[in-house]
Amino acid sequence: MAGCSIYRLQKENRLLNAEAYGRVFKKATRSRDKWFTVLCRKNNLDIARLGLAISKKHCRQATGRNRIKRIVRESFRQHQAEISGLDIVVVNQPAAAMASNRQLFDSMATHWQRCQAGRNGGDRGNERNG
């Protein structure tokens, strides 16, 4: 299923500039847990767009940051149909560097559900878990 072209991460599925990131940071629904803070905002498009802010401060090794980014991108690819119409920025927390891949995937799945609920008018976007 991951090889299917509808699940590929295209250029239009990425936040590409500071203005796009700033728009999300300025007025976003937040979802936070032990591993990630996810900010999302409606984008008036039919697609979801992803931005990553994986900081060196919270994960010193480049290999660790790359692993986190790969996991977030793969999770986004798998859930992008459910969260269409949103701009999303994912920020790592310090615990993400030591978490297993399964923990990170599960965390992202929960965040996607919260973003979807926030888009549909639910108030679950600001829940804390962890």
Query: What CATH architecture label applies?
Result: 2-Layer Sandwich
Q: Rg from C-alpha positions?
A: 14 Å
Helix percentage range: 25-40%
Uncertain parts: 123-130
Describe the structure concisely for a colleague.
The protein is α+β, with helices and mostly antiparallel strands and 130 residues long. 35% of the residues lie in helices and 18% in strands.
Summarize the topology.
Blueprint lengths: L17 H9 L2 E4 L3 E7 L6 E5 L8 H18 L6 E7 L8 H19 L11
Parallel strand pairs: 3-4
Antiparallel strand pairs: 1-2, 2-4
Helix pairs in contact: 2-3
Describe, in plain words, how this protein is organized in 3D.
The protein has 130 residues and is α+β, with helices and mostly antiparallel strands. It has one domain (14-121): Ribosomal Protein S5, domain 2, CATH 3.30.230.10. The chain contains three helices and four strands; from the N terminus they run αβββαβα. A four-stranded mixed beta sheet has the order 1-2-4-3, with helices on both faces. Helix 2 (62-79) links the parallel strand 3 and strand 4. The longest helix is centred in the C-terminal third of the chain and has 19 residues, at 101-119. It is globular, with a radius of gyration of 14 Å.
